[in-house]
Amino acid sequence: MVEMSCMEHDKYVTRSQFVTHMMGRVLEKFGLESSPINTKGYESSLNLVENTKRDSFDLLFMYNQNVLEQFKRLDMAFESIKKELFKRLHQVYRKHLFGDNYGRVLFSLGDKLLGVEVYGEGFISQKFWKGDFLF
To answer: How many CB atoms lie within 10 A of CB 12?
Structure first.
């Protein structure tokens, strides 16, 4: 047993147990089920669901003032991963559709910009900008 204040306890509990219990609940809602080809990592996830689904929801989430901060951090982490995955997916699709010859080039013509988008062997579009306006 470690002696500490209630505030310190809540802070540490939130950091050490929130993610574990939250992910267990998320995976339970996701409908994680055993399969004939479970990996060790997948088995760990199934065990996480089994170990957390019966824990007190109120004790872990409702009465700890630090939970909102952890929710925000978890949400930001999910958003970051989604952005990275969609960025990679976009790059794969773009390369599949246009090959390696895709690019966007801007040329300065006095106070105007000429934008050329290149796809594959030729250019697709050419646009003129002056300030924020497209011509």
So the answer is: 13
- Residue 36: φ, ψ to 5°: -65, -15
Is the entire prediction scored with pTM above 0.70?
no
**Cα–Cα nearest to 60, from 26, 2, 14:** 14
DSSP single-letter state for residue 132: T
pLDDT tens, residue by residue, 28-75: 999 999 999 999 999 999 999 999 988 887 766 777 778 888 889 999
Geometric angle at alpha carbon 82, from 77 and 84, rounded to 5°: 95
Contacts 24+ apart (CB under 8 A), 22-30: 22/70, 22/74, 23/48, 24/48, 24/49, 24/51, 24/52, 24/53, 25/52, 25/53, 28/52, 28/53
pLDDT digits (tens, 9 = 90+) for 18-40: 888 889 999 999 999 999 999 99
